[in-house]
Design goal:
Elements: H1 26-30, H2 34-41, E1 44-46, H3 64-69, H4 78-87, E2 91-94, H5 113-128, E3 132-135, H6 151-168, E4 176-179, H7 202-222, E5 232-235, H8 241-244, E6 262-268, H9 272-275, H10 293-305, H11 307-310, E7 315-321, E8 326-328, E9 331-333, H12 338-352, E10 354-358, E11 366-369, E12 375-377, H13 381-387
Length: 389
């Protein structure tokens, strides 16, 4: 889900969500459990619509930067991450589409080396800015729908991605987290791929998540290096809180580590008519305001549910959150109560010890350069000052 966040919001609510103060060494992180690690990850932001941009028209052997530009984002450079850090962010999530250069329909399951190295360059930008980093496999042409009707091919793609990516990054800092998937783990296993849709029942989808998660953990651990005890992020069912707290959702085992090194990821776009819709749709009427007492209580209730996992020792990541804008008089404007909604999300993350990642596609935190090459960042200096630690 690609959400557009207004630049014209009051960010005083965000101040409380930067937990981390001093960057921990790699050795300290190796001795750390996932609950404590989440505190270090603090306040995060997504590098949205960038490395996960997918482009059928480019083929499988284009210059890596062509894929990166395909959804309208600028070429990623080191100063963007320096600006994140300066603004008060502790972490960045870098969604990735690995099958951009994988012609799996013709039996080619190899990720182009140049593409892999470009992702690695972007990861290193973030690490050099002293940020914690998450990389995943993010929608990625929706190939995940193959699990509903062609699991043999689906497993080949899954294995090819994490055999390659895991091995390539195995000696990178423990500040790099691998996220096994995204919102596709769940209902979207039945998505249509090449004209075919899956027919997995809800029970089969939960079991498949358990199987995939265990396969992912075992694979990464066997690669050695820092992957032996790297923090691994497991997607919830469709990253939906209610479906993830179901007793049918089972976290994988990590027999390699006595210290808990597994994290769990959910997203928060509730109510969906407020957070997702920019106009009325067939499934709902666009909600343009938020913030009464009942709505605030509902938000807190949702976040509290994930304590089921922190009580078991798993760190919780809110991998995406945000509110869509609406159009008035031909211009995009923020919805009423947007600042309140965002503030309540971050206050809940403080309260329950989760790490939140704002979904951003160069609309909230500007990533562009003026004639001097300077990053614009937050448009208003007073807003930028709010985010500084």
């Amino acid at each position: 889900m690609k959400k557009i966040i207004s630049l014209c919001m009051i960010l005083s609510f965000f101040v409380s969500c930067a937990f981390s103060t001093t960057l921990k060494s790699d050795e300290e992180l190796k001795k750390m459990d996932s609950i404590t690690f989440v505190k270090e990850m603090g306040n995060g932001i997504n590098l949205g619509n960038t490395m996960e941009a997918t482009n059928n028209w480019l083929g499988f052997n284009a210059n890596p930067e062509q894929y990166e530009l395909a959804w309208g984002q600028p070429i990623t450079i080191q100063p963007y991450f320096d600006a994140y850090k300066e603004a008060g962010f502790d972490s960045v999530r870098i969604p990735v589409a690995w099958t951009n250069t994988m012609d799996w329909r013709n039996g080619d399951f190899e990720i182009n080396k140049d593409y892999l190295e470009r992702v690695a360059t972007v990861v290193q930008y973030a690490l050099d800015a002293d940020l914690y980093v998450i990389i995943n496999d993010h929608w990625d042409y929706g190939w995940w729908g193959l699990f509903g009707h062609d699991q043999k091919t689906a497993y080949k793609i899954f294995d090819a991605i994490w055999d390659t990516v895991g091995t390539y990054f195995k000696d990178y800092s423990p500040r790099l987290v691998f996220e096994a998937g995204n919102e596709e783990w769940g209902d979207r296993f039945n998505d249509k791929v090449d004209g075919k849709s899956g027919k997995l029942g809800i029970g089969a989808q939960y079991k498949l998540i358990t199987t995939l998660a265990q396969r992912f953990v075992d694979k990464i651990r066997a690669q050695g290096g820092n992957n032996t005890d790297r923090f691994l992020l497991i997607p919830g069912y469709s990253t939906d809180i209610d479906k993830t707290v179901s007793p049918n959702y089972v976290m994988p085992e990590d027999k390699t580590n006595k210290i808990q090194k597994l994290l769990i990821s959910v997203h928060y776009y509730t109510p969906s008519t407020y957070c997702i819709l920019s106009e009325d749709a067939s499934w709902g009427k666009c909600k343009t305001n938020w913030g009464n007492a009942a709505e605030k209580q509902e938000l807190d209730k949702y976040f509290k549910k994930m304590q089921k996992f922190t009580d078991q020792g798993y760190g919780v990541i809110v991998g995406e959150y945000g509110v869509a804008q609406i159009k008035k008089n031909g211009k995009w404007v923020k919805k009423d109560g947007m600042e309140t909604w965002l503030g309540c999300v971050l206050e809940a993350c403080d309260k329950y010890n989760y790490s939140p990642f704002l979904w951003d596609c160069n609309t909230f935190f500007l990533k562009k350069r003026d004639t001097t090459g300077k990053i614009i960042g937050f448009e208003d200096k007073s807003i930028a000052d709010v985010y500084k630690k």
